[in-house]
Amino acid sequence: MCDNAIRDLRGRVSFNADARFDDLASAEVRVHLADGTMLTHAIAAFAGSEKNEFSDGDITDAFLCEAGGRLKPDRAQQIVDAVWSLDGAETVIDLISLLEGPLDL
């Protein structure tokens, strides 16, 4: 998930509604190349959808990837640990204290 080429591509992608995909899980991508070629690929359930849920590890990896360059690795990991322990926590004070303050740029 932490691929700089994919991150760079995000700004060049547009989304269009299509009535063929009304379940909010399936999709089709069309890539128009400079030489006029069009590549097409359809999926029945995209990653993160109800039909193809992310694992806890996938979610953690995505957060750590996006936090990279913004938060120090140890602070980002502390946030992950605090979030995954919320079910047993009496309060959210520890999580809030980790989220407060400036970014670690």
Word description of this protein:
Helix 2 packs antiparallel against helix 3 (73-84) and helix 3 runs antiparallel to helix 4. This protein has a two-stranded antiparallel sheet with strand order 1-2. A hairpin with a 5-residue loop joins strand 1 and strand 2 (38-43). Helix content is 35%, strand content 11%. With 105 residues, the chain is α+β, with helices and mostly antiparallel strands. It is elongated, with a radius of gyration of 18 Å.
Short description:
With 105 residues, the protein is of the alpha+beta class. It has helices at 4-9, 56-67, 73-84, 93-99; strands spanning 27-32, 38-43. The model has no long low-confidence stretch (mean pLDDT 88).
Q: How do the strands line up in the largest sheet?
A: 1-2
Global structural class: alpha+beta
Q: How many helix segments?
A: 4
* Series of secondary-structure elements, N-terminal to C-terminal: HEEHHH
Q: Radius of gyration in whole Å, from Cα? A: 18 Å
Distance N terminus to C terminus?
A: 21 Å
Question: What spatial form do the alpha-carbon principal axes imply?
Answer: elongated
- pLDDT averaged over residues: 88
